[in-house]
Amino acid sequence: MSETPLPLVRTVADLRAQVRAWRAEGLRVGFVPTMGALHEGHLSLVRLALANADRAVASVFVNPTQFGPNEDFDAYPRGEQRDAELLAGAGCHLLYAPTVSEMYPEGYATKVTVARITEPLDGSARPGHFDGVSTVVTKLLLQCGPDVAVFGEKDFQQLQVIRRMVRDLDIPVEVLGAPTARADDGLALSSRNAYLSAAERAVAAKLNFTLRAAIAHLQAGHAVAAVETAAVAALDEAGFDRVDYVEVRDPEDLSRLGPGPLAGPARILAAAVIGRTRLIDNMAV
Amino acid sequence: MSETPLPLVRTVADLRAQVRAWRAEGLRVGFVPTMGALHEGHLSLVRLALANADRAVASVFVNPTQFGPNEDFDAYPRGEQRDAELLAGAGCHLLYAPTVSEMYPEGYATKVTVARITEPLDGSARPGHFDGVSTVVTKLLLQCGPDVAVFGEKDFQQLQVIRRMVRDLDIPVEVLGAPTARADDGLALSSRNAYLSAAERAVAAKLNFTLRAAIAHLQAGHAVAAVETAAVAALDEAGFDRVDYVEVRDPEDLSRLGPGPLAGPARILAAAVIGRTRLIDNMAV
Fold first, then answer.
1. Which of A65, B37, B67, B227 could tie B71 with a disulfide, CB 3.0–4.6 Å?
2. How confident is the model over A50-60, as pLDDT tens digits?
3. What is the pTM (predicted TM-score) of this model?
């Protein structure tokens, strides 16, 4: 393997030894779990970790258990050397890149599940996805033992599921959400944007545009149900091949709001497919 | 509340503050989770914790989620003052006795499940029981953050489920199993023995007697299936009202052995009911 531009560990034992050494020096540790294929969004998570801790650890692990059987686990982009260079450039101190067998050794049998908040939206569109997420995040947090852990608001339902799980299981860590990094036309940065052709890329921008238009209508007092329906129609019209959902929900527990006009804060969330690429986005209302 | 003979905390925050203070002094912390109604068996766990750590914390929490709807949650014996006195006498340093709402606040939604090893034996006889156990033990371990945690071999399947779960979720703790404490006639000490009438108490002793006889037969080369059937018949004959199981299993993953003679180490496990009392026992073969 070629040399990496920052220290790299592949085992829980080596990760813990480094974190223990930092703790012994009185240093606070921040942690950024990722699936690699890093972009500016991930680097902003590293910077937020460093604003809240003395040392930053990033993990890169493409977790098989959060992909469905017909999803893109095999195709998901991987490039450790480039990820390591980007992390080093953002000031990250350690890369943790475990193997699948380090994470799920033979005989592995345990699952963490979160009820209710995992049911709608991506939980309904991707059965089993959040069980995979909550289990691997529990493991990563307990392997690293950081003071703070940073997750992107881009995966907003995931962030709220993790907050719920960390609170429920008493995992001793502070969870921070980081704002979504976007391209100039509003498209949320995502490793999956790499799948898009030029024509698909132009359609993709309409996802965020449609959410911003929907927010304007909600703020003007339009009914939630009507705004959701209009947004789905707009995405169909814009050229998406399938719209999984556009929904306005409670910003904490993601319970349903509406069907009438909003009475308080909300989050609008959407998922839609172009070609073989599934994109998600969300914004505060 | 009357004064307790050892320090008592009721919140995660107070528990962690004490454990953190001990850690800062370089002391190792041992943890003994219990459901109270303490007896000599529990005290032997505290002593094992103290043989492996500088400070011992015991928790007393009758966990509602590991009782089935027709089980004895409400009747389960409770007596905090007496428990605290016994713990102090065994050298315990801190009692952690959280409320149900401290453990499961409003909105609580997370569950830890362990597959396979939870399916037979008590997993089959008590649906949902081990989900309740694995979830509450994960929480207690993450609340306390001990160096070692001690569980009794009396609940052997529970012990092996916890070992599996701790390994799988990377909970940073060493799990120790403690030998079963027994009355002179072999009956395993249990908080539920308090339910037994004098006549039932005489029958109860036959549970361990039958296991010892079964082990002798296994060691003499008798077939597993025949020994299991004979043991069930012996318990019926002895006056038990219902025999849930007598089974010879792999001592690690509790997979099935037999039906022929044993070729290696095994564990024999049994559960049977007299009147309203369900008793369990197990021994190494």
1. B67
2. 999 999 999 99
3. 0.96
